[in-house]
Amino acid sequence: MADYEMFELGDIVLQSQQTIRNARLAYKTYGTLSPAKDNAIVYPTWYSGQHYENEWLIGEGMALDPRKYFIIVPNMFGNGLSSSPSNTPAPIDRGRFPNVTAYDNVRQQYRLVHEKFGIDSLELVTGWSMGALQTYHWGALYPDMVKRILPFQGSAKCSRHNFVFLEGVKASLQADAAYNNGWYEAPPTKGLRAMARVYAGWGFSQAFYRQRLDITAMGYASLEDFLVGFWEGIFLPRDANNLLLMLWTWQNGDISNNEIFKGDFVKALGAIKAKAIVMPASTDLYFPPEDNAFEVAHMPNAELRTIETVWGHFAGGPGTSPADIATLDSALRELLAS
Amino acid sequence: MADYEMFELGDIVLQSQQTIRNARLAYKTYGTLSPAKDNAIVYPTWYSGQHYENEWLIGEGMALDPRKYFIIVPNMFGNGLSSSPSNTPAPIDRGRFPNVTAYDNVRQQYRLVHEKFGIDSLELVTGWSMGALQTYHWGALYPDMVKRILPFQGSAKCSRHNFVFLEGVKASLQADAAYNNGWYEAPPTKGLRAMARVYAGWGFSQAFYRQRLDITAMGYASLEDFLVGFWEGIFLPRDANNLLLMLWTWQNGDISNNEIFKGDFVKALGAIKAKAIVMPASTDLYFPPEDNAFEVAHMPNAELRTIETVWGHFAGGPGTSPADIATLDSALRELLAS
Q: Are residues B20 and B153 in the same domain?
């Protein structure tokens, strides 16, 4: 039995002017919506993650406490649960699935929140990495609905360097002839393993590896054990077309790339009314604090609060660094109380 | 006509206890050896580079002035000119070429310097990146011969993070089935292009890309133009087996991994008597200054002097950042005068 619900979106037209017919948005909720519908939080998923992989920040006694809040975790398109290359019938299956933007994702998430639950006000939107990208979109697209945002280790727009990092990830997967432009029968495992190794250098910082935290904190027996057990373990089970779709979503992420803001990034940042705490990690190699500093300078009600850590992009990520997660949880609590 | 000379090494036994028969060391010299043989400099090549790609630091009026010094540029094994997978006959051709360490390289470079030229004292050894790795080896293996060293943007030992970065580069090349474990007839171009894109995110810093220096300083028309014209342009013409051999040399670089120091890295650093200026770049993503700081702390006569720059690993590299090269040249001049 699935541990999530499905919201039927019908036929949806994307920014690309392509249609996903009978599109579906998979989601899970935690806690109970109050009668006044004033305790809702939206917490989108990250690159390749599914709703259950967001749960490290949800729990009794934590800021995202399901006894108090109604927490909605919508699955990103392409993550294998919401409409994705891997689960959509022809003619838009697999290698033919249309590109989806973060804007497309958040527009449909809004429908879930509004049409399904009748919610018109959100206490908070928060998310990690690509979840942060979606968080920024919520703030810019629904400024009167979103009271607070806490995007962590992500950005409102994919930076040029981040784009290049992802070009390497993409090229390493596509170098495997078994990928076959998306028309594989068996998974392109060589490409998926290569992608995992490329990612490994980016996900954690130089200091993380220098301090051997893969061994001493995460419990792997050796560096090679970490590369196989952790990194290849993340990517091998996932579908290559799904990964490439979400990578496209990431590379093309930009809160101003739509008919509202028409590419004016500063204007889009200025539209975010929500009270915001933006939390980069000091050693994040692809979302460095400098990019967030620019954003915060153009947001009317935002604070930049950098997590000082050696855990790189995984600082506030899925359960790896307890100290950084405590810092993050404490900021979430503070923001929710304000 | 070749613009370099060849030193015939005969049969050489490597640290791996494998033999390269009729091994050859390609080199080029600049300037004239003084009658007292007291004006020699050794300047080894970098990853994939050949002697002419070292010339950005050599010139009249520069610190490495051929009117004053006799500058020897030895080509690293595997770079396509010295003995390499691409130019060695069976049975150790191509996918069967034995692994070569930086130690092996420097031992044979010593023979060139000593046997061919009769030089017993070096004014300076310097090098960029893997050239720096060889520079450290010179200092540790020939402490009474090497008066000064200036390793820039490299290290005496491949760090764990650097190793992981290289795992990604290697995996992206090997993901191409055309590579065929080294027994390709036509080059594995998909893998070489993938490798180039992986490298692109590491070679220059986040700030370099943020400031669009690929366009404004280097003259490319767009980011994609830079990825193809610069990065794919570097790797596509080079031989895959050669690149993988040198990558192995890099990953296994460690001045203490030999019968002299028996893995005692601190002891090996302590053996470097040469007066040293060690120059990392502040934004180098795979040779961060922290690793050099550890080294300098254990070297008896060394100064750490970080180049503040946004050019990342290419700061002092082949001709890309004139300001950083001026900083480097000035330090070389100062060291040579001391």
A: yes
